[in-house]
Amino acid sequence: MEATSSTVLLVEDEPLVRQSTAALFLDDGFDVVEASSYEDALSLLAAAPQTSVLVTDINLAGRPDGLALAKAVAERWPHIRIVIVSGCIRPQQGGCPERAIFFTKPYAPGALLTIVKDPTSW
After folding, report:
1. Quick one: how far is CA 92 from the chain centroid?
2. Crossing angle, helix 38-47 and helix 66-76, to 10 degrees?
3. Which residues on neighbouring strands pair with residue 81, listed in sequence order?
4. How far apart, in whole angstroms, are the C-alpha atoms of residue 72 and residue 66?
5. CA-to-CA distance for 102 and 92, rounded, in angstroms?
6. Residues 60/88, Cβ–Cβ less than 8 Å
7. What strands, in cross-sheet order, belong to the sheet with 101-104?
8. pLDDT tens across 28-70, in order?
9. Domains, the chain, ordered by start
10. Which CA distances in Å does 44 have to 5, 38, 65, 85?
11. CA nearest 66: which of 3, 10, 2, 5?
């Protein structure tokens, strides 16, 4: 897999949410790589470290969760921008990597795209 500067790694364990969010990014011209777990996401990033944005849900099937994924990505690939999403959990202060953005679900599609497309908002 080859990632470009406009590649989003989308990590979501709910297939319908993952498909609809991937379609949103694809329709806007992003390349999208999909994963459903922490392990899958790290494997994909190891193969394509030039990925530009990680969008991960906090709640993922199994362990570790999306917060642990965000922290691992922030440490290993500091150039990747990170958006953490959840409709159930709000991270405690200091629970997200320093440069990550938390976004609540359900999100307005346009708002999510704006966050992902605008690196100056980070």
Report:
1. 18
2. 20
3. 53
4. 10
5. 11
6. no
7. 31-35, 7-11, 53-57, 81-86, 101-104
8. 999 999 999 999 999 999 998 889 999 999 999 888 999 999 9
9. 7-121 (3.40.50.2300)
10. 15, 10, 16, 20
11. 10
